[in-house]
Amino acid sequence: MTALADPETALAAFAGERARLRGLAYRLLGSVAEAEDVLQDAWLRWSAVVPGSVGSAAAFLTTLVTRLALDRLRSARVARERYYGLWLPEPDVAGWDAPAAADAEPESVPMAMLLLLERLGPDQRAVFVLREAMDLDYAEIAAMLGKSVEACRQIMRRARARLAEPAGAWVDPADSVDAGRRLAAAFAEASARRDYAAIVALLSDDAQWLGDGGGMVLTAVNPLFGADRIARFLIGVQRKRGVSFGFTPVRVNGAPGLLAELGGSVRSVLAFDIVAFDNAGGRIQRIYQIANPQKLQRVPSFTF
């Protein structure tokens, strides 16, 4: 991109990069709200840049957003280490029939991948995301992070080794959207009618339930393992409260998901990992329940 000439050109340049920058910030932070805050900070700094002083808006803004996100990530890691229960990424939720938003880039990041990225230190996460998601070469990454090319290569090797450690499979939602949507609908119906056998039939034998209430909402503090335990948990919660869940199909990070409603208000977001199972079209291997109200403020129709 050529050097900026005036404020209108600066605004147009930022708007043209916004979707990509939002995707970068979301991958680095795992939070829609924090990604938006980073973009706001980036815009304020970008708007103060002297016209004509930047040769490449894309490179400058990528560096700016990366550094702002890294500052937030380093602070966030301390809070996440002290988090009550399991920390899950903030979901990016959209209706199935809604037209794709201009800045819907984060939806392409599977929930499972965001959770895996939590294994990485800030520098490892930055190098991995810039290399794998942004497709930058090591020289560009080194310049952005103020490190040598060889240091960035070493950081990338460590990041890949860390991500390769066993943690259960994750599935790209693009490979299983249709099957996943059918499974999510069937799961909603079976759960609402408290049908133990039907719930179990939809889950893989090694299914996992990962819940995040942040200490503010009652949910399973520790992961639940196995179809039997998950089915009993779902049925037990509804029996205890004397009401059945209501569900609304949505897209969560681009994959099939549900808004779960109890007592007339949406209380959590459910996201799914789907795995192939014989010729039956798949089963649910992992369910992510995000119930922390602070992570649901941007979810449509959320009330608490």
Automatic annotation (TrEMBL):
Residues spanning the membrane:
none
Residues of the RNA polymerase sigma-70 region domain:
18-77
Which segments constitute the RNA polymerase sigma factor 70 region 4 type domain?
Answer: 112-163
Under the heading Pfam families, the entry gives: Sigma70_r2, Sigma70_r4_2
Q: Which InterPro entries match?
A: ECF_Sigma-70_Domain, NTF2-like_dom_sf, RNA_pol_sigma-70_dom, RNA_pol_sigma70_r2, RNA_pol_sigma70_r4_t2, RNA_pol_sigma_r2, RNA_pol_sigma_r3/r4-like, WH-like_DNA-bd_sf
Query: CDD domains from the entry?
Result: Sigma70_r4
Per UniProt, subunit arrangement is:
Interacts transiently with the RNA polymerase catalytic core formed by RpoA, RpoB, RpoC and RpoZ (2 alpha, 1 beta, 1 beta' and 1 omega subunit) to form the RNA polymerase holoenzyme that can initiate transcription.
Q: What is this protein called?
A: RNA polymerase sigma factor SigJ
UniProt organism field: Azospirillum endophyticum
Task: Tell me what gene encodes this.
Answer: sigJ
